[in-house]
Specification:
It is built from 13 helices and no strands. By secondary structure, the protein is mainly α. The protein is globular and about 75 Å long. The relative contact order is 0.15.
């Protein structure tokens, strides 16, 4: 299974990255031409920049919101299970459904957000939410955060469950308040949960293309064109299989490098704690 569905496609992508394949018919080996094109064209650097900005927004917001919800639910065991289920439900939905629903909500003409602003007397704030370059990427990233915050929360709740109750009981007996216990005991002991959450959200968002494709098609003016979306467009719109394969290989190398550095830094932080 691993050889058929992972190793073979990986080696085939590497092989095609050295060709001018269009998916059909004959093709020629062009050496490193595709990689040279990627390294010398500004549009690819811009897409990588958009991807890194998208990753930064998602990782920071998703981690903080997941931690906030997990901390609140840890202190409220009576409603923990039902709230955890409600928060996790968006992660079970299809990217297509989520993308189209939020595209309708953010629509400048009949969208729910602009209608709500009209209803509460704030019509002056209405705008083309996904048509503004400075807002589009942030909004698409926040939709991703909305979708997976419950997943992050579940991992943090598992981290809270692994904290020995004796430690918290001792802190209470020593007079430590809730905020002090959180900063000095809970937060340091949640280091493994931070490692898992940051690693998974970083790797997942670096290759994302679904929400930008559905909500904005990479616009406006390339503001939401992640490298994953650029690969899909190069493959299925331009039919440049060789170039798309080279982009995929470059993305894989970047993801591996980022994951390696993150894992090393976060594991060192765990050891220090």
């Amino acid at each position: 299974m691993l050889a058929v569905f992972f190793l073979y496609p990986l080696f085939e992508a590497v092989r095609l990255s050295f060709t001018d394949s269009s998916g059909l018919g004959d093709y020629q080996y062009v050496g490193f031409d595709n990689y040279i094109r990627i390294l010398t064209r500004s549009r690819y650097y811009e897409s990588f920049g958009v991807t890194l900005a998208f990753v930064a927004i998602v990782v920071v917001c998703q981690t903080l919101m997941g931690l906030a919800f997990a901390t609140a639910l840890h202190a409220m065991p009576a409603i923990r299970n039902i709230c955890r289920t409600a928060l996790f439900m968006p992660a079970m939905m299809s990217f297509i459904i989520v993308g189209y629903v939020w595209s309708f909500i953010l629509s400048p003409f009949s969208g729910g957000l602009n209608a709500l602003l009209d209803l509460v007397g704030l019509g002056a704030l209405k705008t083309e939410w996904l048509g503004t370059p400075t807002l589009a990427l942030v909004l698409v990233a926040l939709v991703h955060v909305w979708m997976f915050t419950g997943y992050t929360c579940a991992i943090f709740l598992a981290g809270f469950a692994n904290i020995p109750p004796e430690i918290e009981e001792a802190a209470v007996l020593d007079g430590a308040g809730g905020w002090k216990r959180f900063l000095l005991i809970q937060l340091p002991l949640l280091a493994p949960s931070f490692t898992v959450n940051i690693m998974l959200s970083t790797i997942g968002t670096m290759k994302t293309f679904e929400l930008p494709f559905i909500m904005t098609k990479g616009g406006p003016d390339g503001a939401t064109q992640t490298i994953g979306l650029l690969i899909v467009q190069t493959l299925f719109t331009d039919y440049r299989f060789g170039l798309a394969s080279a982009l995929s290989v470059v993305l894989l190398l970047v993801v591996l490098a980022v994951a390696f550095v993150q894992n090393r830094v976060l594991r060192q932080r765990e050891d220090l704690i």
